[in-house]
Amino acid sequence: MRLRPASLLATFVFAVAALAPVAHAAEPLTVPPIDYHTRTLANGLQVISVVDRASPDVAVQMWYHVGSKDDPQGRSGFAHLFEHLMFKSTRHMGAEQFDRLTEDVGGANNASTGADVTNYFEVVPANHLQTILWAEAERLSNLNVDEKNFESERAVVEEEYRQSVLAQPYGKLFNAIDAHSYTRHPYKRPTIGSIADLDAAKLPDVIAFHHTFYRPDNATLIVVGNFEPKQLDAWVDQYFGWIPKPATPVPQVVVQEPKRRKSAQYTVTSATAPLPAVAMTWLIPSAADVKDLIPLQVAAAILAQGKSSRLYQSLVYRHQVAQQVGADADGRVGPGLFTVYAILASGHTVKQAAKLLHSELIWLATQPISDTELEKVKTQLLTATLKQRQTAQGTAFALGQAALVEGSPARANDDLAALQAVTAKDVHRVLRHYVTDARSVTIDYEPQKSGAKGDAK
């Protein structure tokens, strides 16, 4: 899609968004594929590139195959900690110099950590591509992991935990979903970490983590924008090609999450939540299973995308039991989660909300779904995807997610065809198999009673 002129793509997105509901399933739209190129260096670095002449910018992303699932036992938050440490000094760059190389030329940079990956992303004018490639290679190969950097960034991460988990009324709820939904898989560890684990960390632990996972054969470089392919290849070879591939293999998570034999229920309390909430989860297959993941994502959208969605209409509008609802089909490298939740309205209980959530799931899994509703939701999902890919950065994110989480960059194209092919029968099938006929985990989230001691970390 990035080979289309921006004006044509905008027209195409507008046309998709303007489609009126129809009585019968719409004909699939022909979506031009992302024309990407891949190659792998001798040291194992994967390179994915897309030429895009629509703007004078270029997006550069470094994705590492390491996330919170790879944190050492008792050291949750290490992958997240490195998201911060990678912006500190290197052998040839001062602390925070990466900001100067991007922001001072009119660009931007940031990073994120997930359960499976850590990514670093920049967008700069195309004539600064060489500099950014050098800088990414520099912090891969020559990062300064010293006591000063470690102590300062650990304090930053701990404060981030306090602000995003403890201080937010429903931060502990969303932080608890993974912890209670998995019994063995390291997905149960929170990505942001915990203050206790971060306090227990020592500098040698951090250095060992960096040596283990920050290596060329555990990374994917993605470049999208206005560049010359031969020049890009030459710069990548120059700046990344010399970095040695370690002799030891990259450790892999081999723990298998067992099938749930019974449903479970947990209670989490919060000192900051003004009203109760409830979340329910079910295990789903990995993101590699396109046959089931895409229909599950459609099901989640039918349930909770927008004010016309089923959960909003039922819990918020008709019954007025909740003030906020949500649903998500979270595909991961390993087993994912299907989640529904409700933040309650005043005067109602988690039992009432859970009953309504369950009823809506049963209804969606067993009763007819109109062509109008199904096509509306699929059009919404398709339009959102196309809108994201109007930028080089958005296209790079799509390729990174496809390559590292879903198993192949080809999924960035294939998923759109799979989305358009989803039928009501597919939605019924996956919901019955993974949700209504499966075991759930329910998390009751209650405001902490006056005088009670809460969980501080």
Summarize the helices and strands and which ones pair or pack.
Elements: H1 6-17, E1 37-40, E2 46-51, E3 57-64, H2 78-85, H3 97-103, E4 108-113, E5 118-125, H4 129-141, H5 147-166, H6 171-181, H7 195-200, H8 203-213, E6 219-225, H9 229-240, E7 264-270, E8 277-284, H10 290-304, H11 310-318, E9 322-330, E10 336-344, H12 350-366, H13 371-388, H14 392-405, H15 411-421, H16 424-436, E11 441-447
Parallel strand pairs: 2-6, 7-11
Antiparallel strand pairs: 1-2, 3-5, 3-6, 4-5, 8-10, 8-11, 9-10
How does this model look, in words?
The chain is α+β, with helices and mostly antiparallel strands and 457 residues long. The chain folds into two domains: 33-240, Metalloenzyme, LuxS/M16 peptidase-like (Cytochrome Bc1 Complex, Chain A, domain 1); 264-447, Cytochrome Bc1 Complex, Chain A, domain 1. It has helices at 6-17, 78-85, 97-103, 129-141, 147-166, 171-181, 195-200, 203-213, 229-240, 290-304, 310-318, 350-366, 371-388, 392-405, 411-421, 424-436, and strands at 37-40, 46-51, 57-64, 108-113, 118-125, 219-225, 264-270, 277-284, 322-330, 336-344, 441-447. The strands form two sheets. Strands 1-2-6-3-5-4 form a six-stranded mixed sheet, sandwiched between helices. A five-stranded mixed sheet has the order 7-11-8-10-9, sandwiched between helices. Strand 1 (37-40) and strand 2 form a beta hairpin. It is globular.
